[in-house]
User: Fold this.
Amino acid sequence: MRILQKIGLLTAFIAATALSVPSALANEAATPLEQQLVNKFTEANYSKKGADTCLMCHKKSQSVMAIFNTPHGNTNKGPMAGLQCEACHGPQGKHKGNNEPMLTFGDEFSVEGRNSVCESCHTQEHTPFHDQACSDCHNIHQAKRVAEQPQAQCANCHSLQATAQFKRSTHLDTLTCSDCHNPHEEAPLSVNDTCYSCHAEKRGPTLWEHSPVTEDCTTCHNPHGSVNDNLLNSRAPQLCQSCHNQAGHPGDVHNSLDGFTQGQSCMNCHSKIHGSNHPSGHLFEK
Amino acid sequence: MKAKLTLVALAVLSANATAANFAVPQNIDNDYACKRCIAPEHSNTVGLMTEQRTHLDSQYGANADIKGANYTLYAKNAGADNGHLKAAAHLGDFSLELAYINRWNLDDNDIGAERQQLSAGAKYQTQLVTAFVNARSEDKQGQRISSVVNPKPTNYLETIDHTTQVMNAGVQLHGKFWNVGLAAVNSDFTDNAGIDADNRAQQASVKAGINYGTTRLSVSAASGKMIQDGPIEQENSLVPISNFDGEVETLDYSARISSRYAGFKVAGFYSYSDRDNVSGSYEFFDAINTPIDTSKTRYGVDASYRLAGAKFSAGFEQNDRTRSDSDREETQESELFGRIDYRYQQLNGHIKLTSSERTGSEYRIGDDIFQKYYLADRDRVSTELGLGYSHNKYGANLKVTLASDEYSNSSALQESDEMTVNLDGYYLISEQMTLNAFAGTQTIDSLEIHNTTVSDEFTYFGFGLNKYRINEDMTLGTSYTFSFSGSDTSVDSTDMGDYYQYQHLAEIHMDYRINERISTRFAYSYERNYDTNYANQTIEAINSIDDLNQNYTDHKIGVFFTIKL
Assistant:
């Protein structure tokens, strides 16, 4: 595995060098298409009649007209009270007749270029760090601004997490990404608080606390999914033994059918593993 | 590490470029009439659904999508498992919303829970102010496995009967380039079965954001309490307290600043979270309870630079933690990553390298005791490689991730290696028909001391064929998914037996429009589910639950009617 990592590092270095040199020589801001749009914005050749001009042709498209059922289609405030369609799609210029390109929010435009439109009014951005266009998830022409299946949009980048829906135990059978994550906010440091919003019984504080439980639920559980029961990172007793290898029981090598490996494994006796309120519960047995 | 820094340096030093800025201009006069700005009429619909199954209970539910001038009503399979219903009304700047959500998650042995959540909210929103208040109550009922030593360990099914009530309220002011808000939340938990102790939590928070050109700054702070105040069982006269007054005081801060200039984006962040357990410490017969305090600090910087079709990113992050009454009270983890994205016509690709190192304060355990894995020194490296091709008619994506964790020699967990491959693709067979397919595999191999190996394996594949239009009124669709989860353990060269779960899920449906107003969907699905529970063999030492295996075939027929009003 280590050798693979080193090969990966080397590949990245070669790729970086190979990609950087021609890119640096090219000395251009964006694609020629984007440059064309920059020029159009500079010329600022806006239509004299606003949306009425655009809708002469685009009225036929249901997906275009659907904007009038959304807040962005309100003609008293927001973009439709200003430059209307051209507020977001740029000045018409010679689009009508000559089919000059408009800003379409497709992949052919840079993330920065697309987001610069939305950021004129909205302050939020995708965190944590990675560039994501607002329009990758939000279709502002639709009444439901976030796509029908928001988790499908998340899966475009977060495929590792999304495929956990097929694992033996998973949260993704009844929950969607946004039930736990707010893509516009930094992930909370106290991960447990997110878990407590559904698992309030684990909040405590209990009389006897189990340190990794108090510190971070993900020490033992993978919230997206696991091949093990109860979203556990590994099965018991191996999960428990990755900390408690010398637990004081007779023998640390549990390789036979006994009370350490069968039933609920360590939890056959230590059933209150999330914390105990019993006066004799310091070993989480009661 | 050097390589990553070099590639970032290369990117930073290369040509000076300008990024496209399409910000909405504020200074252009207009006076449009907009005669064509007319909202299309919304088709209000109502519907009924039923699913008849051979293995599980039959389901009946109602669907609705109704929009009036001042109200909306949306229902999806309301009344059936995992259905929901939402009703909203708005008058001027005020809006009210009522919602019901069902979440049903029980396995073949009736282990799991059903949650039923009712919520009501009110909101007042103008261009300057947003104020809201929400109340939510959730009942959770079901069963979970527990165990008691009496005198030998006996596993049994324990009742879950929980109620959680949450109330939150807040106010936010938003200007053109700034926002500031206050919010508060209170949550009460009750176990109606009296098994888990009741508790409550409260938190007040303040949040603010400001934009200055392409620079954004957001800050937040929150202070709260988690309280569990309940009686303690008086098992004998030596119990020093009759009531445990448990309380944790919480404090959280965070700040983030990001800025774009030309092709550059730079961001910095800092967050701090403190959990101060102020509960009392008492001398019990067996031991003294010691409340645990924890704190977490995370900060870092990241930057990206875009040049033509390429983007170069790099970042650094530091994660520090402290916990009291522990073998190791402080741990520090630093992570560095570098990433290159490249797009050339229909092709795109990326490579990401991450390296992190965890270390910490001295251990307070003897040299002959192995260290806990979540506290031990650890080196982690991972490589992610993505390749994609998209064409109007077909496309494919491949993602490969390799990750490796190496722990210090004295850790109970020695190493863990992970490999993941995901592949998906689509093909537009005709204008009406799209085929998509996906497959993936993941392996996680871990090694613990005493030559214990754990091999987890996960494989899935499937396809979907969407919207095969037979005629104007009839379309067909079908999908199939297979998934396999397995885990294999060997302890000191003894094979401990594997356990595995697999599922075949095949579905076919037909949408048929009877007339302008009535449409139907008929669906059939086949599910074959198998799940071993390897660790449930009958042995003398414990009383385990008889049967935890799952082995069933389910045939489901669904009928849906939708009527346009």
